[in-house]
# Entry
Amino acid sequence: MIKIERGERPKALTLEVCEELTKIYSENRDRDVWNCPKIKKPLKEALLKMSRGKCVYCECILNIESKDVTIDHFLPKSTHANEVVKWENLLPACLRCNREKGDYEGIIVNPCVDSPKDYIALDSKSRYRLRGIDEKGIGKNTIISVKLNDIQRVMVPRMIEWEVIRQRLVNILEDLEERGYHKKHKSRLEVLMSECMPDCSYAAIKAANMLDDDNYKRIKDILTVEGKWTDKLEIYEDTMKNICLQFV
# Structure
């Protein structure tokens, strides 16, 4: 999870429309009023823009393969019917995360309000497994309620994406040490770092692993000595530091 900024409420979701749809839902809880034709398209577009096209919980890219865009009600609609179409209560989530969270009533991380890295960290022994770190247990509640350590559906995909990047770092370093610096090395590193940016899948995990990787550190040292550590690379690194989870 990474911190996201909630954008402006879509124009189609006027106060009048909210009141109308909330009333309809209060009278018939089987109505998916958040998928009402008058708001469905602009609402999902606004939510996807807000989350950079990702599920706010597991960070998978939405709208590919089986990862459909669903609208999650942060405060469950079953007990907060008056917020069923309230902009501040809606989040984009993949179908898996939405179903797992369900009507969970405990306090969990709200990525539009909270900084996830204050509540969730990576296990230093299992570099793709999340751990709650706050004293109130909010991070732990989040991980358990959304099953963010689901091995097959969540942990394996983020492990695969990082391991691909890690091997490419190994390749860059081996080539650097064997042949000496060439501009292609900086370009290849830029590509790998760009894959750990906030708009990429599993960014918090990939950024953490890259910053902690010995191959990456060695490549940076070599580029620095060669005078090739650029402002662009520095910006990429600062961005990764801002979103990465810590290891505990």
Remarks:
- The chain has two domains: 15-146, 151-243.
